[in-house]
Specification:
It is built from 19 helices and 13 strands. The protein is an alpha/beta fold. Strand 5, helix 4 and strand 6 form a beta-alpha-beta unit. Pfam families: DUF87 (PF01935).
């Protein structure tokens, strides 16, 4: 069945139709300067296709939340959820076929990128049984797939760019049809833009953007200046879902509207200068100190109550102990706190920032405030703990060599490598996919297998399977090898390796 949705009218007055099934297979790129009508075009497309296909919108400005009232989209305020929570929300939305709007309004650029990447990751990593057709609309795509590094951290940029690349390059086989809109093609990563086969180009003024738009539409360079003459809501269309030749299209009206309409001129209020002076230059209101948000509101109260019931809380000593015995005792107490946190059922799937907050609170209650490590050191401790290594083993020369090899990998993979190294050194069975996924902080067994493949490609390990399907992992150069292990075993059977 062919589903054609009407986007508006051509320059000749004929209906401008978009083949929805072809769009699902070929993706769409929308480009136009601010005020050219991109958001209006996306809204028209979403409204017309809502009865036919599941949708999700990555909305950095909160422009599309009004779709929820009219078409039943679930609006998710990203500010109220963690990255892990958004990844789970993406997976569940895909499984239950619920159209969603991810509202990123109110977050800074880095947190917008991180949360959008987490949500897109959930859509992408869902099991094959749930690869239903889905439109994924990303407004202001240059924010999530920038062509060059900006003021955000490299980690956030890599996460976001990787998620956008997966959407546009690998999403088709998973039923995900990427629709990306950008103000400037020059600011959008080329490997993301190049995967679209359908184009709607709106009003553009900069020469570099006009030249790229003309190239994408197969127009001559001398024709590029025509983009300056386009009116608001007018676009040049090309692609298998739109037209085989460049075609002028005027986008039709929409049933919903954004919360913030187009600014309109209004007369200034009449007020005397003295009244205005009194209002504008009045004394500022007193400052209010906002309480700090905690990931678990009652955590401190619960821990304090438990501690008080066991013994009287004594004040912390002013001077830190200097003897080797005291320092060793403090390290052991800090390790016990970390082990207690990791013993919680969901500890493997919580973000490091939340784990660190709980770790600091527990250390203070134990009277270890002066021994609390900083966040980078906590990350290293967490890596060793997830590999089952205590402070005594981590200080061994052999394990120092393993740590150096692990440092060749991204930080979030180092714990998995060290867990495998420990299993190989002790001759234990190879950790299962579930145990590896838990140590990595994921529920996805597919991701665990890809992780092993990546580590093997770096030349650090060699994976082998015997005739019964059991897996053996050998560490290159160290010649340590695990015993054969069932990759499909449950994580609980190998929990001691992951902790």
């Amino acid at each position: 069945m062919t589903v054609a949705i009407e986007m508006g009218h051509t320059s000749a007055g004929a209906p401008a139709a978009l083949d929805l099934e072809e769009l699902l297979a070929t993706r769409l790129l929308v480009q136009g300067n601010s005020g050219s009508g991109k958001s209006h075009l996306l809204r028209r497309l979403l409204e017309q296709s809502a009865p036919w296909v599941q949708q999700t919108i990555i909305d950095p400005e909160g422009d599309f939340v009004s779709l929820g009232e009219r078409f039943g989209h679930l609006v998710i305020d990203a500010e109220e959820h963690t990255e892990r929570g958004l990844q789970s929300a993406g997976e569940r939305a895909r499984i239950h076929r619920v159209s969603t709007v991810l509202n990123l309004e109110g977050l800074d650029a880095e947190n917008q990128m991180r949360r959008a990447a987490a949500f897109l990751g959930g859509l992408f990593e869902v099991a094959r049984d749930h690869w239903y057709p889905m439109l994924v609309v990303v407004d202001e795509a240059q924010l999530f797939a920038p062509a060059v590094a900006g003021e955000v951290s490299d980690e956030a940029r890599k996460l976001s760019l990787g998620a956008m690349t997966n959407l546009m390059c690998r999403g088709r086989k998973r039923g995900l049809a990427g629709i990306i809109a950008t103000q400037r093609l020059a600011k959008l990563a080329k490997n993301v833009a190049a995967e679209a086969s359908n184009f709607l180009m709106g009003r553009t003024f900069l020469d570099i953007d006009m030249a790229r738009a003309a190239d994408l539409l197969g127009m001559e360079r001398r024709q590029a200046e025509a983009f300056r003459d386009l009116e608001r809501g007018q676009f040049m269309a090309l692609g298998p879902a739109l037209s085989r030749r460049p075609l002028g299209v005027r986008i039709g009206p929409t049933d919903t509207s954004p919360r913030n309409g187009t600014p309109r001129l209004m007369p200034l209020p009449e007020a005397a200068l003295e009244d205005a002076r009194a209002i504008i230059l009045a004394a500022p209101p007193p400052e209010t100190v906002r309480p700090q948000r905690r990931s678990s509101p009652d955590l401190l109260d619960q821990l304090m109550a438990a501690k008080s019931a066991a013994l009287e809380i004594r004040p912390e000593p002013v001077e830190a102990p200097t003897s080797a015995e005291d320092l060793a005792e403090r390290r052991e107490r800090v390790d016990r706190v970390l082990r207690a946190i990791l013993a919680q059922p969901d500890a493997g799937f919580r973000v490091i920032g939340v784990l660190y907050q709980e770790f600091v609170v527990r250390c203070r209650i134990e009277g270890l405030a002066s021994a609390v490590p900083d966040l980078p050191e906590f990350r290293r401790m967490l890596t060793r703990a997830r590999a089952g290594l205590g402070s005594d083993l981590a200080g061994d020369d052999v394990w120092q060599d393993v740590s150096v090899r692990a440092s060749l990998l991204p930080e979030d993979m180092q714990g998995v490598f060290m867990m495998i190294a420990r299993a190989a050194k002790e001759g234990w069975p190879c950790p299962s996919d579930a145990a590896i996924a838990r140590a990595y902080g994921s529920h996805s067994l597919r991701r665990a297998r890809r992780l092993l493949t990546y580590i093997e490609e770096q030349g650090l390990i060699v994976c082998q399977f015997d005739g019964t399907g059991r897996r053996t992992v050998t560490l290159v150069e160290l010649a340590w090898a695990t015993a054969p292990g069932d990759p499909n075993a449950e994580a609980a059977e190998q929990g001691s390796l992951a902790l």
